[in-house]
Amino acid sequence: MDQQLLRSYFSTIYELPTADGALRASLDGETVKDPTALPELLRTQFAVLTAYNPRSMLLPRRVNESRHQVMRDMLILGCYRVEPCVGFEAEKKESVWREPAWVVHGMDREEVIAFGRVFRQNVVIYSIDARPSIVITDPTADDVGRSFDGHWRPRA
Q1: From 105's CA, which of 14, 33, 42, 112 has a CA 20 to 30 Å away?
Q2: Residue 142 and residue 145: Cα distance in Å, rounded?
Q3: What share of the chain is helix, strand, coil (3-state, %, to 5)?
Q4: pLDDT one-digit tens code per residue, 104-120
């Protein structure tokens, strides 16, 4: 996996839905000594999936939106709780790149990888027990299923 691309995945800020409003977090945090100090969502099992821009190939907005809606429908048919989220590269005011995604609750790692492969994504985000991972789903980038572990970093 290209190291610059991997660094950008770690530093992406995700705006995740919670009962208390949007939670902003990235995977580039320090080791968490007390996971109970993290917001509740970050301590659960969930994935962040998108169907936008397969293999980093920019597609027209309408195509991306259609693919993303198909992904959502498939997830819902699989009986998963799905909520919209967004990833962006910098603080909101400065961010040029924004990519819609889905928070998928309770999905196991193998199925997360399968969705990433079907929708031709480079990676997916999988988190369990307050431990997020960037998981390779593109066989041309690295071994499918190879993980790069991170640490949640809540953002203001």
Answers
A1: 33
A2: 9
A3: 30, 30, 40
A4: 999 999 999 999 999 99
